[in-house]
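It is worth pausing here to work through a concrete case rather than discussing structure prediction in the abstract. The textbook approach is simple: state the sequence, then state the predicted structure, then interpret. We follow exactly that order.
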Amino acid sequence: MKIEYRSSFVKDIKKLKSTALSKLIKSVIENCENAHTISDIKHCEPLQSRGKFFKIKHGQYRFGVFIDKGTIEFLKFGTRQNFYDDFPPF
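Step two, the predicted structure:
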């Protein structure tokens, strides 16, 4: 699948200082690149009644993504405590 990044996701990533989190992010992105369908993405769940918005869960961290027509757009990254405050973005 094709991968795109929104500026809000890039800002969330730049705040991080842990190399362990960097490895986690890299592995999730590689998993998404290698996926052919949504069901191939590990730990990916749709948001209820939100259409094409999905969350990818890894421990206490969440990735907010928008999936449409073979393109995955990473929108947000954060801990589960503050992730749902501004995701999905509307």
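Step three, interpretation. Strands lie at 2-5, 44-46, 53-58, 61-68, 71-79. The mean pLDDT is 88.
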